[in-house]
Amino acid sequence: MTRVRHKRTHHARRDVSRAARTRARKLDPDQIQANMNDAAVLAALQNPTSLDVDKPGLGLFYCVPCDRHFPSEADREKHGRSKLHKRVCKKMEQEKAYTVEESMWAAGVGVDNKQRGSAAGDNKKQTAASSA
Ligand SMILES: [Zn+2]
C-alpha cells in the first residue's frame, strides 16, 4: 500500500469556510472593469468622502483592480509593488469581460427568433390546408 498524500493540498488557504462567506465575496472581474472604465466611479472609490468603520483603514485606502482595502497608505503602496497586484492589473488590461450575450451564446442559449418552430408549424398548416 502506498502512502496517501497529505502535504501541499491546501495552497495556503487555512480557513476555506471563512473565505467562502458571502460577506467575503469580492467583485467579479466585469464589475471591476466597469468601475475602472467609469471615471466618476473610479474617483469616488479612490477618494472616498465618508469613513467606513467596517473596512480596514476606515475604507480610505482602496485598490480598485484588486478590490481590496488596506489599513494604511504605506500598505497600499507596498501592495502596488507586489507580484499579486501586477498580475491582477495585467489580467484586467488584457482580458475583456464577457458580455451577457457572449455568456448566453456560450451556454447555447440563443435569441429565439421563432424561425425554426414557426416554419415547421407553417409547413404543417400549409400541408394540412392543401390536403383538406
Ligand atoms: Zn492591487
UniProtKB/TrEMBL annotation:
It comes from Acaromyces ingoldii. Residues 63-85 form the C2H2-type domain. It is found in: Cytoplasm; Nucleus. InterPro entries: C2H2-ZF_Maturation_Protein (IPR051879), Znf_C2H2_jaz (IPR022755), Znf_C2H2_sf (IPR036236), Znf_C2H2_type (IPR013087). This is C2H2-type domain-containing protein. Coiled coil: none annotated. One of its GO terms (molecular function) is zinc ion binding. Residues 1-13 have a biased composition (Basic residues). PROSITE patterns: ZINC_FINGER_C2H2_1. Residues 1-27, 110-132 are annotated as: Disordered. It holds the Pfam family zf-C2H2_jaz. It comes from the Eukaryota. One of its GO terms (biological process) is ribosome biogenesis. Belongs to the ZNF593/BUD20 C2H2-type zinc-finger protein family. Keywords: Cytoplasm, Metal-binding, Nucleus, Ribosome biogenesis, Zinc, Zinc-finger. GO terms for cellular component: cytoplasm; nucleus.
